[in-house]
Predict the structure.
Amino acid sequence: MNNSENLIPIFPKGEKASADYFVGNVWIKNLIPADETFHMVIGNVVFEPGARNNWHTHPGGQILIATDGTGYYQQRGSPVQIVRKGDVIIISPGIEHWHGASPNSKFTHIAVNPNVQNGIVDWLQKVTDEEYNNI
Ligand code: MN
């Protein structure tokens, strides 16, 4: 692989995500805002190593497309999964979950949120270090 390819991000870094809903440094670039035709929000999300979002659900479901680095994904009641560049995760409406970077790697995914007329996200509690490290 040509290593230099990995050094150039596809999308701008965007805005820093709120510490109310994320642990660590996370950057979100909104790519497609909601409208009355598609009812969909698409964003690019960059997690620094160790960073993750809080537990949450999506009323309309969510699709994550991993584009760089190594991340973690966990559904409530299931083990933490390692997510690699090229993986696609389909999250049904209402499923409690979190996603973020692994401890030693940045992680970037595209987040596709359909059916946003039902709501985009409902935030829950923070992911504890014990939960994060239980892998
Ligand atoms: Mn999510």
Summary: The first helix runs from residue 129 to 132. The two ends are 29 Å apart (CA to CA). The chain has one helix and twelve strands. The CA atoms of residues 73 and 99 lie 4 Å apart.
